[in-house]
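Students often ask why we bother predicting the structure of a whole assembly rather than each chain alone. The short answer is interfaces. A chain on its own may look different once its partners are present, and contacts between molecules only exist in the joint model. In this exercise we take two input lines together and write out one structure for the complete complex. Read the inputs first and try to guess which parts will touch.
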Amino acid sequence: MDLLAQYVMNGVMLGLMYALVALGFTLFFGVLDVVQFAHGDVLTAGAFAGLAAYAVAFHAGVHSAVPQLLAVVLAATLSMAVLGAVLGRTLVLPLKSAPPLNVLLATLMGGTVLRECIRLFYPGGSQPQRFPALLPSASWSLGRFTLRLDNVLMILAGVALVAGLSLLLRRTRLGLQIRAVAQDEETARSMGIDFRLVVLVTFAIGSGLAAFAGVMHGLYYNEVNFSSGLLLGVIGFSAAVLGGLGSLGGAVLGGFLFAGLQTLGAVALPFASAYKDVFAFAVVILLMTWRPTGLIGEQLGERV
Amino acid sequence: MTAYRPALRVLSALALGAVIGILIYGLLAAESEKAVGLVLLAVALTVAAGLRTGVLPRLARAAGSGPLLGSVALAGVVLIAVFHDDPFVLLLVARALLVLVACLGLHVQFADAGVPNFAGAAFFGVGGYTAAVLGAGEIPHLLVLLASGAMAAAVGSLLLLPLLRTRGHYAALITIAFGLLFRTFLEVNEGLGGPQGLKLPGLRILGFAFNDDRQLLGLEVSGFAFYCLAAGVLALGAVWLVRRVERSWLGVSLDAVRLDETAAACFGISLGRWKIAALTLGNAIVGVAGGLSAMMVGFIAPNNFTFQESLVLVSILLLGGLGNLAGLAAAALIVVWVPEKLQPIQEFRYLLFSVLVVLVLVLRPGGLVRRRARQAFGSAAA
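Now the answer. The structure tokens for the assembled complex follow.
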């Protein structure tokens, strides 16, 4: 029972991270019908930006946790929002009318550029970096299960972020514009919506979410690695596909479903813990085979 | 088509072979960074001038593909003879040739059938590990190489169903996931040596050990010269096979599948069958190259088969101009050669290649070299 609770907790954390990444994929696909494969590396870059901000804050004499945390989160999300918009502007928008595979290749290679830059130019970037524990470490024991305050805080923050995004899309003018562009670019343009601006803002929002997931990942595992975004990107994309690309609820559902399956695998095959990532990738492939267009996904009728 | 006289054909083929041979000689012989830069400049100028004035394409057309391949092979043999006692250069050449073979396999999948494969290094690795496991025993090594190809095709067949049910981005994601899965699997699997990898014996065919240095015509010949020859034979065979496929009705069907799936299906071309054919053939070619490469190096580890390496293979495909075999060969040589010759940029090679590919995609969306359309009635229209 305690063990089960532990697994559920772990699954919820993972699910939230996957959902945040998947939301980015689904937003990009919504407005522009493209897949931005550098998204996973944006996540890593966000975590490293947070790490750098921490180092700067530390050397500037900020030693209490709250401002440090604030600096880390703000630096990560804002810098990645800018980077996401830049990637959208340089790699995705110019290739809008090129074959879709070109966008995929360009963003894949763009992601490699990010990854290699972190590995080569971040001090010690080729080794896993320790991520500071910035959240309060209090915990409550319920039987043998310990509920950790930092995990609870992260989950609350993640849920708040998802809820905020949903509100933004449904209740604000910007959200209306994003949804309009997602539905029909031409009509949206003729209604006076600045298409490029909306697309770039969407890229900024999605990338900021990924950066937040990156910081969460760092805080949860106390470590970041230049290549950890690769796994999260692949999983996030398949979570988005599973939920149906372009659907927000689907992305969250897909993220949690994926985390559930992964946790289930860990419970059912405890002897194979070394094969955890192998299992994750196998699940990606199987799920994509089972539902190539998602659980509640778009109907791919093709008109000739 | 203009009928060229045999003497003219042979002469043009020899001229072109000589030009290519001299350029490659320059690439291989350059030692200092300055020399490397000069040679690269010379290559770029020659190619640009040759294309601008139309001399190179005209020579190639006059020679015809058979004599041209022959003269390039001749140039290769001459080069191997020149560098007969320089194992470093020979290893470089052999590696470039094997990378070319692997890229030819991916070429069948990506450039012909339109199925991108981002797990090229993984299939290369399947071939290598097969050679490592089987090569230690008594099985003749030619059979082991064939088994490497068969094994890569067999492992690739696990992905057939997923790849047939998906398209575009989704299919790409499946190959990416497989490439990552394969690498992780190798690292945690104890039976295949784990992260330390496996050692394997050198190639031996009919009692002829490729690893040994030996005396030939009074010259001390490095063992790698024989690997170069073997890799060259493999590369020629692969080029021949791929060209045969492309120029036959098989190629027409593959083109149709790539260019418009709906139209192809309307004309009764079975999408599944052609994708399966291209994927299997491509993976088999990659696997054979992987097997020979592993035997040549004598050692394999999971780190040789990372996602980055798969991306390098795709980069070569793209930089060579999708669908262009001559460009592919040049790109393979340059991509293998540059990091080896310019040690300072060795560490930055992935970064460099990725930036190059991004630039090509953004600045020349139609590809580095525009793909020639298939001509229905000979090449009269050319």
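Check your guess against this: The radius of gyration of chain A is 19 Å.
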